[in-house]
Amino acid sequence: MPTVVPVSDPSAASLSRYLPPPALIEAQVRDALAEDVGDGDLTAQLLPVDAVARAEVMTRDDAVLCGVAWFDQVFRQLDPLVEIEWHARDGERVLPGQLLCSLRGNLRQLLTGERTALNYLQLLSGTATRARRYADMVAGLPVRILDTRKTLPGLRRQQKYAVVCGGCDNHRMGLFDAILIKENHISAAGSIRAAIAAARRLAGDAPVEIEVESLDELSEALDAGVERVLLDNFGLPELRRAVELTAGRSRLEASGGITRDRLRVIAETGVDDISVGGLTKHVEAVDLSMRLRSAPLA
């Protein structure tokens, strides 16, 4: 899991820690191009083979930029000679009408890669933009806004990177890097204490967290010495009482039914983390466009 310090306003240095390895980005883009281009771009065959052109990518929305590495990789795989000059970076706020990047290269390859490259940039910028809205709503409070596993299939690493670009934080990446004990696990184990004991035997270095649905269950979890507790669908009075009962013995995460209009008041109860599935589940793509800015050059 990430560090306890909220990302809040990510720098290029901090973002590099969350960017997937180059080999993974390359494989992701290869799959995306195979999906769109297949055996070849039929429409591009209408264009001169050796024509060179310039293009620009603009935003029509107020947004947080994310997806530069995937955008670049699209054109790198189609034609390594395509030149891209960026005028903004991941994690940076951009305004309607702002120039994001300029491209120069083979006309066919520019137009073949346009949709795949923009798909990455629009979706990931949309995720980052939503994350920034949530981060801004709790500015000044010592709380982290966390994503969840409610990501678009096949895009988890990309979306979780975008969440960090927007100033929020990552929860576990998947089922493999942390243990989160939920109601069915507790039922199968027989009790909260038994579930936590079993998790500790298996966890190794992986963090252990347990979901509770009442203050009584919270007390059981605290007595068992668990390091993190997820408070599922607690009301505001219950959240405040949970913070009092815990008194710093465990890290508390509020979850379930978290909406933007309730986010600040939930954060003010004193919980350490708030997980929001909507960061990655409810995404509106940023409106971007790529336009040729010169006639094809010989």
Share of helix, binned: 40-55%
Would you tell me the structural class of the helices and strands? Answer: alpha/beta
**Which spans of ≥5 residues are poorly predicted at pLDDT below 50?**
1-7
* Rg calculated over all Cα atoms: 23 Å
How would you describe the oligomerization state of the chains in this entry? single chain
Q: What is the residue-mean pLDDT, rounded to a whole number?
A: 93
Coarse morphology: elongated
**What does the largest sheet look like?**
6 strands, parallel
The percent range for strand residues is 15-25%
Strand order in the sheet with the most strands? 6-11-10-9-8-7
Please provide the count of β strands: 12
Q: End-to-end distance, in Å?
A: 52 Å
Output the helix-strand order: HHEEHEEEHEHEHHEHEHEHEHE
Task: Quickly count the helices.
Answer: 11
